[in-house]
Amino acid sequence: MTILITGANGLIGSDLVKKLSNKYKIYGIYRTKNDEVKKIKNVIWIKYDLKKNFKKKLKPGPKFIIHCAVDQGASKKKSISDYIDSNVTILKNMANYAKDNKVKLIINLSSVDVYGDIKKKLLDENCLPQNQNTYGLTKLLSERVLYGQKINFINIRLPGVLCEPFQKKFTRPWLNNVFNKMQKNQDIVVHNIKGKFNNVIDTEEIVKFVKFLIKKDITIRDTFNFVSLKPIILKDIFNIAKKKLNSKSKITEVKDYKKNSFYISTKKLEQKLKYKTQSTKNVVEKYLESLYKFNS
């Protein structure tokens, strides 16, 4: 079985390459150099700008595509329309490649940012997107690209994704940044500390889901929230982390914060695909364990 992964040297993409290459042959498409990632075995690396049509003949051809590549909007030299055009074009080109080369399934890594301003306590796939940031709007338009193509696809709307600690990039997601501050015993300011939280997943769960889809070999054209199961109180997450990391960080809550606190439904994923993710507590505890070992 062969899998093509776009954005293969990015934070999430490189983790997926590492974990999936143990079982499958991987084509890793990248745009910028990352020597650390390229040491991984059983991977054929392809340097390519996916804003151009991708017509390379790969043998054996990939049966699955995991689309991780995205331009998140960090340059002041680009406008919002530049990012939208860039990201939508990239996915259009991969959709065309999938159609021309009989790829079984595109797994598109989308984001819960597609929802924009969230007014509900429980967020499900029926919530209408509104007032998204550039990244969220780009992801929503990319999802719609796939609906306009005659191909098999699944959009998974991801929360903050915890990757392997060895990558040493602690600014994303937000929870990872918090854990890094705790290791340094820095004070932390948070909002809605008593709110339910499951806005997190890890790359191990994404890999597990990819393997599930490969084994199931289904025909599907749909979109799902893909987050951890069983929300827990945010304060409890901090207490677990402080204990595991032996942290002396002081946690301060901002009382006048007006942004809505919400948690995310996984009901559609469970009912339609019969798939359950790990619990929020398990995701957090497992990551903290690996983080503790890495820094010991």
Q: Give me the number of helical elements.
A: 8
What is the CA–CA distance across the termini?
37 Å
| Text of the CATH class of the largest domain | Alpha Beta
Secondary structure: helix percent: 25-40%
Order of helices and strands: EHEEEHEEHEEHEEEHEEHEEHH
What percentage of the residues does DSSP assign to strands (E)? 15-25%
Query: In angstroms, what is the radius of gyration?
Result: 19 Å
- The CATH architecture classification of the largest domain is 3-Layer(aba) Sandwich
Global shape: globular
* Category by helix and strand content: alpha/beta
How many domains comprise the coordinates? 2
Classify the oligomer: single chain
Task: Tell me how many strands there are.
Answer: 15
Largest sheet: 7 strands, parallel
- Global mean pLDDT: 89
Strand order of the largest sheet: 3-2-1-4-5-7-12
CATH topology of the largest domain: Rossmann fold
Fourth-level CATH superfamily of the largest domain: NAD(P)-binding Rossmann-like Domain
Unreliable sequence segments: none
Brief synopsis:
It is built from 8 helices and 15 strands.
General description of the model:
The chain has 2 domains: 187 residues, Rossmann fold (3-Layer(aba) Sandwich), CATH 3.40.50; 102 residues, UDP-galactose 4-epimerase, domain 1 (Alpha-Beta Complex), CATH 3.90.25. A 7-stranded parallel sheet has the order 3-2-1-4-5-7-12, with helices on both faces. The chain has 8 helices and 15 strands. Helices cover 35% and strands 20% of the residues. The protein is globular and about 55 Å long. With 296 residues, the protein is of the alpha/beta class. The model has no long low-confidence stretch (mean pLDDT 89).
